[in-house]
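Entries read sequence, tokenised fold; example below:

***
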Amino acid sequence: MLASQYKGCAAAGTRYASFCKLLNNPSALELDEVKWLLLRSLQVTALLPLISVPLLAQFPHSPVDPDRRDRGAAIYAGKCASCHGDDARGTANGPDLIRSLPVLHDRREMLYGKELGPLLTTLPGHSYKFNDKQLGDLSQFLTASINGILRSGGNSQPTGLLNGDAQAGEAYFNGAGGCTKCHSVTGDLAGIGKKYSASALQQKFLFPNSGLFLKKKVQVTVKLRSGKTYTGDVVHIDDFTVMLREKSGETLSFNRVPGITVTTDNPYTAHEELLRKYTNADMHNMTTYLDSLK
């Protein structure tokens, strides 16, 4: 098998032979081939900034000054809302400004109304001669309106996470949630509101074992018909097979045939079961309560 693989590598040509060896048998690489592979990896790494910069440039930061936005909102309400709608999404009498190419271009390039001015004096039904300050204010209102409907919203951080009822959250924590079976506000959760942001707190009780740093892994024990047992971290488990990794690092796989008993120990079972029960109010109440533990 290995001989046929190297034959294929040779047929691929010298340019790709090193990649082929790397995939099939890295120990067979010569020193010059290792150097060539490192050079290619460095070249790819050097290209990443050239790829990412144009992508980032397509979505420039569009800052909004609150005072200018509010002044622009007043102008819009008096001159534009009757046709374009209070939310700038259009009516039967005027088009949607949120999807207007001139408005999107104004926001993207941060022109502060420079190109909108001529349109407001020449388009049918428009004869508004705003000065530069007024145009800038109107532009800021429209920019804020667009920011507000983006998938990520107009804010760099999640909002509205602490609009729940802390007392209701405490009642859920001590009652229906069953949290006191494993946690204590004077023990492991003491001062937790000072340690984490609201978004981090919510993430931690909804998905406690997710993220970059997993705390605990699901354990599985397989008992064979002979009575011998094997225990380790779950690598994979389904209705047909179980794969586990023992403390020694060895990975074992078993078919789930009659006579074999499989038992799992998931430290986050309670959290996973609550995910099917939480209401939107429960999640916000819990987040608000945990944030108050400072």
Summary: Residues 31-57 form the longest helix (27 residues). Confidence is low (pLDDT under 50) at residues 1-8, 10-16, 50-59. The longest strand covers residues 229-237. Residues 219-266 form a domain with the SH3 type barrels. fold (CATH 2.30.30).
